[in-house]
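not sure who needs this but someone in the group chat was asking about Aspartyl/glutamyl-tRNA(Asn/Gln) amidotransferase subunit B from Chitinophaga flava so here u go. i didnt clean anything up, its just raw.
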Amino acid sequence: MSDIYSKYETVIGLEVHAQLLTESKLFCSDSAAFGGAPNTHISAISLAHPGTLPRMNRKAAEYAIKLGLACHCEIEKDNYFARKNYFYPDLPKGYQISQHTAPICKGGYVTVVTDAGSRQIKLNRIHLEEDAGKLLHDQDPANSYVDYNRAGVPLVEIVSEPDMHTSDEAYVYLTELRRLVRYLGVCDGNMEEGSMRCDANISVRLKGTTTLGTKVEVKNMNSIRNVKRAIDNEVKRQIDLIEAGGTLVQETRSFDASNGSSFPLRSKEEANDYRYFPEPDLAPFRLTDEFIAGIRATLPALPEELVQKYTAVYGLPEYDARVICDDKATADYFESLTAITTHYKAAANWMLGPVKSWLNEHSEDISRFPVTPGALAALISLTDSGKVSFSIASSRILPEMTQVAENPLAIATRLNLLQDNNADNISPIIDEVLAKYPDKVAAFRSGKKGLMSLFVGEVMKLSKGKADPRLTNELLAEKLKG
């Protein structure tokens, strides 16, 4: 990085909208499902016909609280909704029902792990609101169409403090947040489908100063990678403008992923531009301690808790633990597996090796893996006992287990794959190998002990993988004493 850019510190705050996985919309019974023909998940209420009244979706509040508890937030007991007034063609009411001064979750943090170490990114709030519809600009060359299916779908907006300083940190924060909502089952986190969307508030300031610079909001980013690209582009644009003597203006910009640049949309609104006032058609609602405690009791084990368990109790490397916890389905499978076997490291090796390879090869996720945790535990036990080698177990027995519902010992027996631990059978094979490589034998005896792996490999090859490796090593060591 040149001296010009190294003079500045970047300050980033992210606003993430996550669609909640409720069956119905926030204030009516219309379907909240993604997809469907345009304008089929609508009713008089979601279209804001005169005389219609909203009614609160209890499940949406439960999901918001669940996320708040997982993010260590303070849960607001006295809640109300407000009208956020602005005009946009995909907003049928002419206003959005949201929360303003009393968000359902306050404060909190999300822990991120980067190359610089572990850090807590502070949150400002998590609040409930309804989504707008969707404008379609590519259906007609002269007109834009509106699909109101999404209008009224429940959202949580997760607002961080301006507490991030690099695009890498923002990338890890968003990745962790997406993993968290998926673990909790409150959002599917699919940015490509718009069910998780991110706006980035970015400013720069000279290092050593504490006053925030002029904030620019960047919108229209449909992947975590594009959020990182947009931040990098905006930081460079701001610094270049400042260094050229220009003046930054507070504005909202849109990111063009095709060329990695942004362009201005409008001047940035302030809260008072929306003329917030309490929603008169919805009564305030109060949350009881018992209600919150009931939701807390449903929280699953979250990634950081599982990583701690796998490293401290199971003795796994932190990298292995974090890869296993990368998605909830994989962690759930591993939890079921380790409830049956105590060979924790072997279980992790199988998950990160042969199982992952099979899933990648077949473009499947763990939920569609045909081998149950119990069957895989039996295969691990078969390998650990020395009855089959890991190579044979992973290359021959596991593929067979994905095709037939048969226990691994029966498969190994049927395919004649059980390891031979009879010295009388292995010894002649060793003699044949040593006779084949007299010069290597001499080199070994003169000190080149690394040749042992060559001899073992040749024995395994001649025995078609059936020779017991431990016994093979012992017999070879004895014969090579000379």
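also Residues 4-290 form one domain. if thats useful
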